[in-house]
Amino acid sequence: MECMFDVGEAEKVKQRVLQLGPQCERQWGKMSAAQMLAHCTVSMQMALGDVKPPRATMGRILGPLIKPMALKDGEPMRRNSPTAQELLISDERELAEEQRKLCGMIDRFSAAGPNGCTNHPHAFFGALKPQEWSKLMHKHLDHHLRQFGV
Q: Do you know which InterPro entries this protein is assigned to (predicted)?
Protein backbone atom coordinates (compact mmCIF):
# COMPACT_ATOMS: atom_id res chain seq x y z
CA MET A 1 0.00 0.00 0.00
CA GLU A 2 1.36 3.39 -0.99
CA CYS A 3 1.54 5.74 1.97
CA MET A 4 2.09 9.48 1.80
CA PHE A 5 3.53 9.35 5.34
CA ASP A 6 6.52 7.48 3.88
CA VAL A 7 9.17 10.06 2.98
CA GLY A 8 10.48 7.94 0.10
CA GLU A 9 7.02 7.54 -1.42
CA ALA A 10 6.29 11.24 -0.97
CA GLU A 11 9.56 12.03 -2.76
CA LYS A 12 8.57 9.81 -5.71
CA VAL A 13 5.27 11.65 -6.03
CA LYS A 14 7.03 15.03 -5.87
CA GLN A 15 9.39 13.96 -8.67
CA ARG A 16 6.35 13.14 -10.81
CA VAL A 17 4.85 16.56 -9.99
CA LEU A 18 8.06 18.20 -11.15
CA GLN A 19 7.95 16.27 -14.46
CA LEU A 20 4.82 18.17 -15.47
CA GLY A 21 5.44 20.65 -18.24
CA PRO A 22 3.84 22.23 -21.29
CA GLN A 23 4.50 19.02 -23.22
CA CYS A 24 2.17 17.03 -20.93
CA GLU A 25 -1.20 16.65 -22.58
CA ARG A 26 -4.37 16.09 -20.58
CA GLN A 27 -5.77 12.58 -21.12
CA TRP A 28 -9.22 13.37 -19.66
CA GLY A 29 -11.10 16.08 -17.78
CA LYS A 30 -11.12 19.85 -18.21
CA MET A 31 -8.43 21.26 -15.89
CA SER A 32 -5.08 22.50 -17.11
CA ALA A 33 -1.99 21.01 -15.46
CA ALA A 34 -1.62 24.09 -13.22
CA GLN A 35 -5.30 23.95 -12.21
CA MET A 36 -4.95 20.24 -11.45
CA LEU A 37 -1.97 20.94 -9.17
CA ALA A 38 -3.93 23.64 -7.34
CA HIS A 39 -6.83 21.18 -6.99
CA CYS A 40 -4.47 18.59 -5.48
CA THR A 41 -3.02 21.18 -3.10
CA VAL A 42 -6.50 22.03 -1.80
CA SER A 43 -7.30 18.33 -1.38
CA MET A 44 -4.19 17.91 0.77
CA GLN A 45 -5.21 20.99 2.76
CA MET A 46 -8.51 19.19 3.34
CA ALA A 47 -6.68 16.11 4.65
CA LEU A 48 -4.72 18.33 7.05
CA GLY A 49 -7.82 20.18 8.23
CA ASP A 50 -7.06 23.56 6.65
CA VAL A 51 -10.12 23.25 4.38
CA LYS A 52 -13.30 21.77 5.85
CA PRO A 53 -15.99 21.23 3.22
CA PRO A 54 -19.43 20.17 4.43
CA ARG A 55 -20.64 16.61 3.89
CA ALA A 56 -22.30 16.06 0.54
CA THR A 57 -25.79 14.60 0.67
CA MET A 58 -24.87 11.89 -1.84
CA GLY A 59 -21.75 11.16 0.19
CA ARG A 60 -23.81 10.57 3.31
CA ILE A 61 -25.80 7.99 1.38
CA LEU A 62 -23.20 6.40 -0.91
CA GLY A 63 -19.90 7.27 0.79
CA PRO A 64 -19.86 4.31 3.21
CA LEU A 65 -20.58 1.93 0.33
CA ILE A 66 -18.02 3.38 -2.09
CA LYS A 67 -15.20 4.08 0.41
CA PRO A 68 -13.95 0.45 0.56
CA MET A 69 -13.85 0.26 -3.24
CA ALA A 70 -12.11 3.64 -3.55
CA LEU A 71 -9.44 2.70 -1.01
CA LYS A 72 -8.88 -0.81 -2.37
CA ASP A 73 -5.20 -1.64 -2.89
CA GLY A 74 -4.05 -1.73 -6.49
CA GLU A 75 -7.13 0.01 -7.85
CA PRO A 76 -6.60 3.47 -9.39
CA MET A 77 -9.26 6.13 -8.99
CA ARG A 78 -11.83 6.28 -11.75
CA ARG A 79 -11.76 9.06 -14.32
CA ASN A 80 -14.16 11.98 -13.95
CA SER A 81 -15.09 11.15 -10.36
CA PRO A 82 -17.20 13.82 -8.65
CA THR A 83 -15.41 16.38 -6.49
CA ALA A 84 -16.36 18.74 -3.69
CA GLN A 85 -17.17 22.31 -4.79
CA GLU A 86 -14.32 23.58 -2.59
CA LEU A 87 -11.82 21.61 -4.67
CA LEU A 88 -12.85 22.98 -8.05
CA ILE A 89 -10.30 25.34 -9.63
CA SER A 90 -11.52 27.46 -12.54
CA ASP A 91 -9.11 30.41 -12.65
CA GLU A 92 -5.82 30.30 -14.52
CA ARG A 93 -2.73 29.30 -12.52
CA GLU A 94 1.02 29.36 -13.12
CA LEU A 95 2.49 25.85 -13.40
CA ALA A 96 5.81 26.41 -11.60
CA GLU A 97 4.11 28.17 -8.68
CA GLU A 98 1.54 25.39 -8.32
CA GLN A 99 4.29 22.76 -8.45
CA ARG A 100 6.08 24.58 -5.62
CA LYS A 101 2.90 24.80 -3.53
CA LEU A 102 1.95 21.16 -4.02
CA CYS A 103 5.45 19.88 -3.28
CA GLY A 104 5.43 21.94 -0.09
CA MET A 105 2.06 20.49 0.89
CA ILE A 106 3.31 16.94 0.21
CA ASP A 107 6.28 17.62 2.49
CA ARG A 108 4.01 19.04 5.17
CA PHE A 109 1.62 16.07 5.01
CA SER A 110 4.43 13.54 5.08
CA ALA A 111 6.24 15.26 7.97
CA ALA A 112 3.06 15.66 10.03
CA GLY A 113 2.34 11.94 9.81
CA PRO A 114 -0.83 10.39 11.19
CA ASN A 115 -1.19 13.04 13.89
CA GLY A 116 -1.44 15.75 11.23
CA CYS A 117 -4.61 14.37 9.63
CA THR A 118 -7.90 16.06 10.30
CA ASN A 119 -10.73 14.57 12.30
CA HIS A 120 -13.13 16.51 10.07
CA PRO A 121 -15.02 14.07 7.84
CA HIS A 122 -14.24 13.84 4.14
CA ALA A 123 -16.98 15.56 2.11
CA PHE A 124 -17.99 12.30 0.40
CA PHE A 125 -16.53 9.38 2.36
CA GLY A 126 -17.14 10.68 5.88
CA ALA A 127 -14.80 9.83 8.74
CA LEU A 128 -11.36 8.64 7.64
CA LYS A 129 -8.54 7.23 9.75
CA PRO A 130 -5.08 8.73 9.15
CA GLN A 131 -3.95 5.72 7.09
CA GLU A 132 -7.08 6.11 4.95
CA TRP A 133 -6.32 9.81 4.41
CA SER A 134 -2.77 8.87 3.42
CA LYS A 135 -3.94 6.23 0.98
CA LEU A 136 -6.61 8.52 -0.47
CA MET A 137 -4.11 11.36 -0.97
CA HIS A 138 -1.70 9.01 -2.72
CA LYS A 139 -4.43 7.62 -4.97
CA HIS A 140 -5.73 11.12 -5.72
CA LEU A 141 -2.29 12.45 -6.64
CA ASP A 142 -1.53 9.38 -8.75
CA HIS A 143 -4.89 9.75 -10.51
CA HIS A 144 -4.21 13.33 -11.53
CA LEU A 145 -0.57 12.78 -12.45
CA ARG A 146 -1.68 9.92 -14.72
CA GLN A 147 -4.24 12.36 -16.16
CA PHE A 148 -1.25 14.27 -17.57
CA GLY A 149 0.87 11.25 -18.44
CA VAL A 150 3.39 11.43 -15.59
A: DinB/YfiT-like, DUF1569
